[in-house]
């Protein structure tokens, strides 16, 4: 049920004929009772029309519904694209008894392709008619593009539930990773509070993953909270909610990496002992995005030299992050291959669906973690044929 697992949420997923494949391609999520919410958006300078429009909407109203289409990103489509995003929000609002500013619009698919609005609006109307508590799975299927299957997650707290759905397999890299996520909860939040909880959850999950190093034009994570359960809020319950939200975001983020286009291995990268958390993050990100590290992972080749080279060239403050090979140790799946400046001669046997890469820098208390996929022949094939 994912996004409809929390009380007071309805969803639907329908086929509107937007996708060339003919698969489901319009999803709708609605809260009843009234919700509050927040979103985080791509940092790409080229922002899709639905991102531009939805950001405007959230400046003046609390979100009550989310419309998602797959098959067209409605990005780089100019003023006409923004008008189409506004028309989509208006159509959903009319069906749901809302005002357009209470509707968030998300799109995913090929950049530069206008939305086929007759089909899009028919899909919105059909989805509104099919809204139900049982519609979460259909909605999760309707938002997919090159994904191999739906990505959903649920976490239960004491008296509340957090649910989520996401899509994403390629063009995945922080500042949001092409990915979309919608998260719902029946935990009570006040107006203006949702962002305070959403930001750290996203920073520790969706902003710590990479498939191919490309930042999308459409990335978004939306949180709706309707307080449908009578939870007495305390500092302890807020901590529990934050943990549940982080758990759902983390689970969805890992599913995205594991489903990276053509991916066969998840790299679990951990850096500790850096001068600061920020420098640890820079080093972890550099390793996660190195094509040489990622292709070695595809071949199950424990080529730790590639990890060292990437770690030593992590961009930071106009130069590189601090690192001293004489104090650095590296291990693969718990087997130390480089110990404080010298190779150990150990050769780990890599062969599973995950590979843990640990770096101990020995310089301070900074730490960071990252998830990344390997880089495979299939990734090249999928993206070489994406529009043809």
Detailed description of the structure:
The protein is α+β, with helices and mostly antiparallel strands and 388 residues long. The chain folds into 2 domains: 2-258, L-amino peptidase D-ALA esterase/amidase (4-Layer Sandwich), CATH 3.60.70; 266-384, Ubiquitin-like (UB roll), CATH 3.10.20.340. It contains 10 helices and 18 strands. The chain has helices spanning 49-60, 78-96, 117-130, 136-142, 194-203, 235-258, 277-288, 291-298, 304-311, 377-384; strands at 9-14, 26-31, 36-41, 65-72, 103-110, 151-157, 160-167, 180-185, 209-210, 220-225, 266-274, 315-316, 319-320, 329-332, 335-339, 342-343, 354-360, 366-373. Helix 1 crosses helix 2, helix 2 runs parallel beside helix 3 (117-130) and helix 5 packs across helix 6 (235-258). The longest helix is centred in the middle third of the chain and has 24 residues, at 235-258. It is globular and about 65 Å long.
Brief write-up:
This protein is α+β, with helices and mostly antiparallel strands and 388 residues long. The protein has helices spanning 49-60, 78-96, 117-130, 136-142, 194-203, 235-258, 277-288, 291-298, 304-311, 377-384; strands at 9-14, 26-31, 36-41, 65-72, 103-110, 151-157, 160-167, 180-185, 209-210, 220-225, 266-274, 315-316, 319-320, 329-332, 335-339, 342-343, 354-360, 366-373. It has 2 domains: 2-258, L-amino peptidase D-ALA esterase/amidase, CATH 3.60.70.12; 266-384, Roll (Ubiquitin-like (UB roll)).
